[in-house]
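Dear Dr. K.,

Following up on our conversation at the group meeting, I've run the structure prediction for non-specific serine/threonine protein kinase from Gouania willdenowi. I'm pasting the input sequence below exactly as I used it, so you can double-check it against your construct before we proceed with anything downstream. Let me know if the numbering doesn't match what you have in your notebook.
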Amino acid sequence: MNSKMKKCFRRVHHMMVEENHKGSIPLNLTGHLAVVITEEKERKAKEVLFGTMNSRKRRAEDELEDERPSKRSCMDSRNREVRKTRKILKARKRSVHKKELQSVGSLVCYEKYPTCPVIIKKAKKEFKEKYCEFKKLGEGGFGSVMAGIRRSDSKPVAIKHIPKGLVRYMLVKRQGYKYKAVTEAALMAQAAGLLYDGSVANHSVIGLLDLYQLRTEILIVMERPLKSMDMRNFNILREGRIPEHEVKSIFKQLVDAAVLMHENGIFHRDIKAENVLVYLDQGNLSVKIIDFGCGDIIKNEPYTWFSGTVNFAPPESLLQRQYYAEPTTVWQIGALLRNLYAEKTFKTRKYMEGPNPPFDCLSHECNDFMNQCLTISPKQRPQLVELQRHPWLMGNSILKKCLKVWL
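The predicted structure tokens came back this morning:
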């Protein structure tokens, strides 16, 4: 009996005496004990098996050595040198591979930082053992999103299935190394401030838990707050009558999250009701930004093609075929706010044609916030930090009840 088995037996005996198990072995220790005993048996079996094989091999080699001529022995010595060289090369290859894995492994973010944008797991069996899917949350051209739980602690999760042909990749550089990463996962992680050192933590971005690269699809496993829904369904649940003070709370968090995303160098590019989760956190409304499938890193030069919801595209992308990150985010925040109260779905082209009267059911500060976000000229639009200081988000506006709010 080796030290590992002795230690396990001592632990079982201690628990039986101290915790009064009355002769029964705790279930977790039973499993552990079984594993230890199985490992011990396998080790002994290997010793017997390989010991027998090695002894036979040595005897056969000794017999052959006695019968070999001198010329054959020279050839065998050369063969042994060749085999030895091959073993050395294989060992070096394994060493290099191990170093590569270790360098990639330095990017693993453990449980308290739920993101792993570069290390990709490939075993479907491992996914099924760790997670359970039970209903569909949504579907689109990108694939589908399923609701599920993590089996170990019943944590609610959302699992995004993306066909291999629709997956985008990007190079992620860290600590002098470059890695190929799934773009959406890497952007999500960095938007939350979890990928690069010196980034700002952003708790209003959905957390990334796992990433699986299977034969035909990519699985992105994300957190799913309890009792959460996107803003579109939240508006429907409230029958189109969301009080202004609740809308202000949501948009204050949304603007703060957008500021942090841009500080971390990430451009979401598709801010809309379907991509903003609303949920109750200790009795207060909280938000999480989801779906970075249309996102990109922030660049100094203008973007020349638009990826996102066309109805929320900024005017400059339609007129000049180029746009910048921050003015676009500001425009989309204003478009989302107006879309909550307009009778028809917001469309940039229709808004540019006008007229766009203020909403009588909203306070003057709220209308002013909306109009500033929806300034046609991108150079005259406020910056995100200026939106944070807007009187509507900073002060207590006079609330007016809106009789009907249309999505």
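Two things stood out to me. Residues 27-67 form the longest helix (41 residues). The mean pLDDT is 78.

Best regards,
J.T.
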